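Dear H.,

Thanks for agreeing to be a second pair of eyes. The structure we're designing against is below in token form, covering all 258 positions.
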């Protein structure tokens, strides 16, 4: 293979590793990216600027990088052939009207959970998420809800190390498997301070006609308000809206008679 071709492939590999590094956690600066890639800061900066120019990264005011809108577009295309954001906007608005809390629409893109849409809470103290935000699925309610419904995806995900993002993040595969089994049994997932201390969420899957999970609807709120409202009360609301959204997409639950 000619040297120029080898160099090109090497650059592509580093660019993909850079995207994965940014997707795994909070925004990263050029120095941190260089350490993750075991390359020079200049090389990391050049790769980041190229990805930024093409919409795959965004640079924050503090010079750190996060995933850009192009990643969201690709993730959405992989996750579904329909425009879920448009199809499920009514369900998001209903969930917001019933809870007045931040509502999230989450899809899976590879090993990551992606915020496809969101409606911010009207409360003075809120937890927000930007469209395109990428999360580790084991640390957010939408990701947990989807993992619990997909055995193959769950097993593939558990085959890799679980990253820690807060003191309460579940990083033991056996413990996470137990949580996913319980999530599937009750029909909803609870993010109990797994991503950020003091921030909780409850999520339930939205199903396509085949019954497979295509997305998840979640309500995110401060831990104090969740304790005041109660997990049982809020989960009933989330599940009811998610079931209606699934019905809108064409899913029909199998009954004993059917």
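And this is the sequence the design step returned. I haven't edited it by hand at all.
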């Amino acid at each position: 293979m000619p040297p120029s071709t080898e160099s090109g492939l090497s650059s592509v590999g580093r660019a993909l590793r850079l995207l994965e590094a940014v997707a795994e956690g909070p925004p990263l600066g050029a120095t941190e990216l260089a350490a993750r890639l075991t390359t020079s800061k200049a090389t990391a900066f050049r790769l980041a600027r190229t990805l930024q120019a093409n919409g795959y990264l965004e640079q924050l005011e503090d010079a750190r990088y996060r995933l850009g809108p192009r990643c969201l577009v690709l993730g959405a295309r992989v996750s579904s052939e329909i425009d879920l954001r448009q199809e499920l906007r009514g369900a998001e608005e209903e969930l917001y009207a019933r809870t007045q809390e931040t509502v999230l629409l989450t899809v899976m893109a590879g090993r990551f959970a992606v915020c496809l849409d969101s409606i911010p809470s009207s409360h003075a103290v809120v937890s927000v998420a930007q469209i395109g935000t990428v999360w580790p699925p084991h640390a957010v309610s939408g990701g947990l809800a989807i993992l619990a419904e997909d055995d193959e995806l769950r097993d593939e995900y558990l085959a890799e190390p679980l990253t820690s993002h807060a003191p309460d993040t579940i990083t033991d595969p056996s413990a996470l498997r137990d949580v996913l089994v319980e999530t599937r049994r009750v029909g909803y997932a609870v993010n109990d301070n797994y991503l950020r201390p003091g921030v909780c969420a409850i999520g339930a899957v939205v199903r396509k006609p085949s019954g497979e999970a295509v997305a998840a609807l979640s309500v995110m709120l401060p831990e104090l308000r969740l304790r005041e409202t109660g997990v049982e009360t809020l989960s009933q609301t989330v599940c009811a809206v998610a079931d209606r959204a699934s019905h809108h997409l064409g899913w029909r639950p199998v009954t004993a008679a059917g």
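Two observations from my side: The domain at 82-249 is CATH 3.30.450.40 (Beta-Lactamase). The chain is about 50% helix and 20% strand.

Warmly,
E.
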